[in-house]
Structure formats: structure tokens, C-alpha cells
Amino acid sequence: MKTRIFLAAIILFSITSCNTVKKENSKIIKGELVHVVYFWLNNPENQEDVLAFEKAIKKLMNTNKLAVKMHLGKPASTAKRDVVDNSYNYCMIFTFPSLKEQRLYQDDPSHLIFIDQAKHLWKKVQVYDSMKESI
Which residues of the chain, if any, have pLDDT below 70? Predict the structure, then answer.
């Protein structure tokens, strides 16, 4: 009888442990709303402009408290195809826990300061927002 209870306890522990690991190692991006912003700089060959932009956007990323996860990148050297647009200079991705936080972010001082400090450096900004769907 003790052996059966012990085995049942081990099996139950194993099942619950596996569920915990699955959640922690999920491939799903954390956050209900994904905010993707592409920037085309006025003078991407001008090192002073590039450094000024990078300083401003990194300040935004370090001071903003509303985003759950963040990413800053440049176009990848992937194969050229008709569906690939790598004409941009920077891509910034923020995820937010809800639409409410994304709306708050729009008026957040860290966001407004970034725009004020860097808007003269870009010629185009394109934003794509998406809400999470069940997978």
C-alpha cells in the first residue's frame, strides 16, 4: 500500500513538474499586444545621426516600464525574396500585457521624450500592432 501511494505521488509530481516546464519554455511571445515599429533614417550613413538615434531609442527601452518584452534590431542578411522588405534601418518591438498599457505607452513620458529627441533623425516610421490569438 505504501509503495502504491509513493508511486502515485511520484507520478503526480512528475506530471505537475512537466506542466511547469512547458509554461516556462513556451515559444509563445509574452504579452497580449505586440507593437512593431520600423524606422527609416534620413541619413543612415551619418555616424553621428546613427549614434544619436541609438542613444535615444535605447534610453526609451531602458526607461519605459509598460512593455513586457523588448527587441531592437537591424535588417537581417536573409535571402532576398519578393516578400522580404529590408529597406528599413531599425526595428523595435515591444510587447504589452494589454491594449490598455499600449495606450498608456503612447502618452508615457519616456515615449514622448524619445519622439522629441529623435524625430528629426527619421524620414519614415511604420507601426504594426497585433493582438494575441489563441494558438
Answer: 1-25, 135
